[in-house]
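Practice problem 4.
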């Protein structure tokens, strides 16, 4: 059974994955306090996607699965404001939230991917790599840019999270990926998303001139 612990929470309109870089501009007083306390105590904060409500101010409701963010750099820019760089580290699940401090905190437990040694998952991962490269090449064609792709991770877990980071899907789909309990389900879900998104991008390329000249919204359906 995982240990429960208290974690400062930062609700955002962003889904953070393990291994993902996160730049933030901190200007609200409560988050200035939170970041300063995290830096002082060498502890992470948790990033959670807002389910409804504003990003600035209070009153937002949040999803229950998020990712811890470790601060890697702080730039102070005056009036207590700061630009920070953070890195996603590990997933967690929220059991309850509290407002003992000016910022939101949660009682959470770690939520690591299950069944990471699954043989079928490893086999699917070998197919995800080429699909991800193809997806990025389509993006390069659409943007008319040259794209140099570094070597992709051989570790299936690292590849799964990298794919989740790269996929240009709505945040609801991103959160769906973050919520997945096990590696095989994550990779299978990503495979479907890669196929879907690649088809949409190819249609945009094929219908490029018509799509640009036609004032009506383009629909692949």
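Answer key:
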């Amino acid at each position: 059974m995982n240990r429960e612990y208290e974690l400062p929470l930062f609700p955002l309109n962003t889904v953070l994955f393990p291994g993902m870089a996160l730049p933030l501009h901190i200007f609200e007083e409560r988050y200035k306090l939170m970041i300063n306390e995290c830096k002082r105590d060498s502890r992470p904060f948790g990033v959670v996607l807002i389910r409804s409500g504003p990003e600035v101010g209070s009153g937002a409701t949040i999803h229950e699965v998020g990712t811890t963010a470790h601060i890697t750099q702080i730039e102070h820019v005056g009036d207590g404001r700061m630009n920070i760089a953070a890195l996603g580290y590990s997933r967690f699940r929220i059991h309850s939230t509290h407002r003992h401090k000016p910022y939101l905190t949660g009682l959470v437990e770690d939520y690591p991917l299950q069944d990471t040694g699954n043989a079928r998952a490893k086999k699917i991962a070998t197919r995800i790599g080429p699909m991800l490269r193809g997806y990025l090449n389509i993006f390069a064609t659409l943007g008319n840019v040259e794209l140099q792709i570094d070597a992709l991770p051989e570790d299936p877990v690292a590849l799964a999270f990298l794919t989740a980071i790269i996929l240009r899907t709505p945040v609801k789909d991103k959160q769906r990926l973050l919520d997945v309990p096990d590696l095989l389900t994550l990779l299978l879900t990503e495979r479907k998303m890669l196929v879907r998104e690649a088809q949409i991008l190819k249609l945009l390329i094929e219908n490029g001139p018509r799509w640009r000249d036609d004032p009506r919204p383009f629909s692949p359906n």
